[in-house]
Structure formats: C-alpha cells, structure tokens
Amino acid sequence: MPTVQSWEVSDALWSRVEPLLPQRDPRAQRRRKFRRRPGGGRKPIAPRDIFAAIVYVLRTGCQWKALPKSFGSASAVHHYFQQWRQEGFFVRLWRAGLAEYDEMEGIAWEWQSLDGTQGKAPLAQEAVGNNPTDRGKKRDEAQSVGGRPWRPAVAYRRRGEPARRETAGPDAGRDCGATA
Length: 180
Description:
Elements (H helix, E strand, L loop, with lengths): L10 H7 L29 H14 L13 H13 L2 H16 L19 H5 L52
Helix pairs in contact: 2-3
C-alpha cells in the first residue's frame, strides 16, 4: 500500500468529500458579459485537484501564490476557495467530519470545557527592551549598572558660545551660571 502524504487527498477521503461540494451552476456561463470562443482560455480545473490544492495550502501553510504549478493556477484555486467558503462547503465538511468522529469515538456533547491563559513572556523585556510608547519615563528609572548617566555630557550653552565639556556629576547638563 503506497504511503499518502498529509496534504494528499486519498480516494477514501475524496469519496466522502465529493458529495459535499457545491454544484457548478451551468447558468453562470450565460450571465457573463463576455463569452469565450470554443476552446479558448484555460481548461477548468477538476474539483478534486482544487480540493487537493486547498488541502496542500492548509496543511503546509504556504502562501497561495507559492502553490506548486502542478496544482494549476494559484489565483484560480484561491477563487474556488473563496467561492466554496461563501457557499458553506467547509462548514458542511466540518460538520460531516464531526458527525463521523462522534460515531467512531463519541463526543461528550453535554460536557465541554475551554481553557486558556495570557501573560507576558518572561524573557521578552531583556530581549527587546522597554515598550517604545512609554516615553518620558527614562528620568524616573534607575541608572543601568556601568552605563552612562542619561543627562547629556555637554552643558547648556547660549547661541554663539563655544561648547564646553563638564565631567558627569550632579550638575552635568545644567547651566551653573559659570562662563568658560
């Protein structure tokens, strides 16, 4: 028995999926503004190939445009995905799978629970630093060990005066009234 990859559609799966597919409307061709010439344009993709392409995208997580060419046009497959979603195909597929699982294993419908949690990642603060929206709070924070003080090393000066450097101390960055 050949091995089937998780994104491949087996014959057994297709036999259960095919009856749930929306039927193509033959009148849709008549409603179009422009008609194709006989034999013109791309041939329609078979529904099984469309379903296999959708399963491939959902199982591998690739982008629609990264779909291998062997499945056909990525935009056409995405168009069918949108159309089938609107027509409720995936809801019907989910319900049929749920009913089949209920028959096989049994689902305790009278008792369900949901659990979840949310919190900060413990190492995120060290990795990315403070939130950039916390502006103006640096002055209140403690000095980092071995880091330079937050105040600028160049003292305030009036226009036209040469810049003078002061040692970093309690008066660094303040005008003490002294001139150079």
